[in-house]
Design goal:
The chain is α/β, with parallel strands linked by helices. It has a domain of 235 residues: NAD(P)-binding Rossmann-like Domain (Rossmann fold). The protein contains 12 helices and 13 strands. Strands 3-2-1-4-5-6-11 form a 7-stranded parallel beta sheet, with helices on both faces. A two-stranded parallel ribbon has the order 7-10. Helix 1 links the parallel strand 1 and strand 2. Helix 5 packs parallel to helix 6 and helix 7 packs across helix 11. It is globular. It binds uridine-5'-diphosphate (UDP). Uridine-5'-diphosphate (UDP) binds next to helix 7 and strand 8.
């Protein structure tokens, strides 16, 4: 059996929002962490905060390309691989859709082959987006989803679905030991203010004294999970022993509408908030809520941070960032602003 103190843990996407929290948790638990990230959508300061730790090594690289030598020469020491490498907010993953798809398919294949070579356990950070715009509610892992394979979200949704397929095929044929987490909306400190997601946009807009941009009429629902809860579940899943391989939903089942999210922020601020309405993006899911019975049973896990406490902490962190940086810019879809999101274009084939 592999214990967490053996060998190296590779975290692909470790400079990102969830990835940087995961690296910190693993380092605190005594693991040696090798972080591989292309810095395409990462927040650089997340990396700066980890860089001085003696058990932390950073390698810049893009998993859709051949893996860097600095990673391959550690292959014999790698015991665990977490794959969180992909732009994850709709605005950012749609900025370079070919790269998003290939990151999930080609990149996951490269990391699975590395897991096979190293004899490492592999955890795929998959997503609630595999359920698309769900017609089953709440979403259990058995639900097969309602995904458009030609729409603007397909690069991410279908990419993650194919990544799950690859992971299961590697596991079925005994090539790698695999875990698959389906992560639902996660929020918390260390998000990019300009990643375009609803929580970061709304808080950045409050701090910039701008009206909050509700897409559509605000009756669509999401279920928001505080990042510390998500990370705890990922670590438990990686360390779990499973008789049968199943994907596991990781999220907070407390569901609310986007209009209710605005009200919750109003409660935190102690005043009403001005809103403005924009078009609902194409294929925006109407409802989303995880059924987490399986996570409870297999991992003994459920979220412990309620939305009000988590949002208070997140708001406090963003407010401190706002004081430090002078301004925070929300990110609206390109058609709204006439500008392109600031995402490095990474040639998928270059
Ligand atoms: N949304 C919104 N205003 C924003 C950003 C997002 O109303 O400024 C909505 C979006 O249309 C979706 C929900 O909030 O219905 C969650 O969007 P997000 O981009 O955070 O993640 P998703 O769950 O769509 O992947």
């Amino acid at each position: 059996m592999i214990t967490e103190h053996d060998g190296l843990t590779l975290v692909a996407g470790g400079a990102g929002f969830i990835g940087s929290h995961l690296c910190r948790t693993l380092l605190d638990a005594g693991e040696r962490v090798l972080c591989l990230d292309n810095l395409q959508t990462a927040r650089r300061r997340n990396l700066d905060a980890l860089a001085d730790h003696p058990n932390f090594t950073f390698v810049r690289g893009d998993i859709s390309q051949p893996l860097p030598t600095a990673v391959m020469r550690e292959a014999r020491s790698i015991r665990r691989i977490y794959n969180l490498a992909c732009a994850a907010s709709p605005v950012l993953y749609q900025a370079d859709p070919e790269h998003t798809l290939l990151t999930n398919v080609v990149g996951t294949d490269r990391l699975l082959r590395l897991a096979e070579q190293a004899g490492a356990r592999f955890l795929l950070a998959s997503t609630s987006e595999v359920y698309g715009d769900p017609d089953v509610h709440p979403q259990t892992e058995a639900y097969r989803g309602n995904v458009s394979c030609t729409g603007p979200r397909a690069c991410y949704d279908e990419g993650k679905r194919a990544a799950e397929t690859l992971a299961f095929d590697f596991a079925r044929s005994g090539r790698a030991e695999v875990r698959v987490a389906r992560i639902f909306n996660t929020y918390g400190p260390h998000m990019r203010a300009d990643d375009g997601r609803v929580v970061s946009n709304f808080i950045a807009q409050v701090l910039a004294e701008q009206p909050l941009t509700i897409y559509g009429d605000g009756t669509q629902t999401r279920s928001f999970c505080y990042v510390a809860d998500t990370v705890e579940a990922l670590v438990r899943l990686m360390r779990s022993e499973m008789d049968e391989l199943v994907p596991v939903n990781i999220g907070n089942p407390a569901e609310l509408t986007i209009a209710e999210l605005v009200e919750t922020l109003g409660t935190i601020l102690g005043h009403n908030i001005e809103v403005t309405h924009r078009d609902l993006p194409t294929d925006d899911p109407r409802r989303r809520r995880p059924d987490i019975a399986q996570a409870r049973a297999l991992l003994g896990w459920e979220p412990t941070t309620d939305l009000l406490s988590g949002l208070r902490r997140t708001y406090a962190w963003f407010a401190a960032e706002h004081r430090r940086a002078g301004e925070l810019r929300p990110m609206l879809p390109a058609t709204e602003t006439g500008t392109e999101p600031e995402v490095a274009r990474l040639s998928a084939t270059g």
